[in-house]
Amino acid sequence: MTRCPAASRTGDRGARVGAVTRTTESLTPELYEYLVAQGAPLDDVLADLVEETARLFPASKGMQIGPEQGTFTTLLTRISGARSAVEIGTFTGYSSICLARGLPEDGTLLALDVSDEWTSVARRYWERAGVSDKVELRLGPALESLRALPAEPRFDLAFIDADKEGYIGYWEELVPRMRPGGILLADNTLSHGRVVDASETSDHVQGIRDFNAHLVADDRVTQVLLPIGDGLTLARKK
Ligand SMILES: C[S@@+](CC[C@H](N)C(=O)[O-])C[C@H]1O[C@@H](n2cnc3c(N)ncnc32)[C@H](O)[C@@H]1O
After folding, report:
1. Ligand 1 atom index nearest CA of 87
2. Which of 24, 81, 170, 236 has the fewest CB atoms within 10 Å distance of its CB?
3. What highest taxon heads this organism's lineage (predicted)?
4. For the chain, what is the domain count?
């Protein structure tokens, strides 16, 4: 693999220090299976949702967040005390259920997506999970839905998991609408390792590289890229 120069442009000193301290473990399939088994067990609702999604939409394999990421999302939502959350990219509802479960009874999740077909599955599973009262779905391009919201801070937590070329646009609409101390999560920020492969020139990988560099330069937040799933960036608005 030819190493992508963009990878060494950002966070240079931290990367050099990281190379001589302790690095994150590489996960073999066996180690990943072990890791998942040490987390909270998957309940019937989420297990059925994964199976039904695979059956209905086989071409969309890999769209849902993984079980450890789901549990992490629920825990983080709960630990943070978030009451108002927004999700960009709902698909069939896995991550939205994980977010909604972390919210209090009177908490709200605004779920944004373009697909009526995919989110119709989500609606059924929100009912089954007992979270449908917390979730409001808005269909349409997420950038337009975000721009139509009042400009003042209202969200405690945001989760971005839609088209990768759109991440910077979502970020710029979200940050001003986050309360101080609010948490932003962005999924797929390692692009299966392709972010550091210079031969990888697709728009979605370049979208993620640009997004990651955008965050490094953004002093409104403190952020870390976690090696969970396909890379999960966790940021806190100052
Ligand atoms: C990777 S999937 C989300 C998976 C979901 N978070 C989960 O865990 O099940 C990406 C979703 O983003 C949606 N999407 C793509 N482009 C979009 C856009 N411009 N506006 C809103 N949603 C979009 C797709 O319809 C799809 O449902």
Report:
1. 6
2. 24
3. Bacteria
4. 1
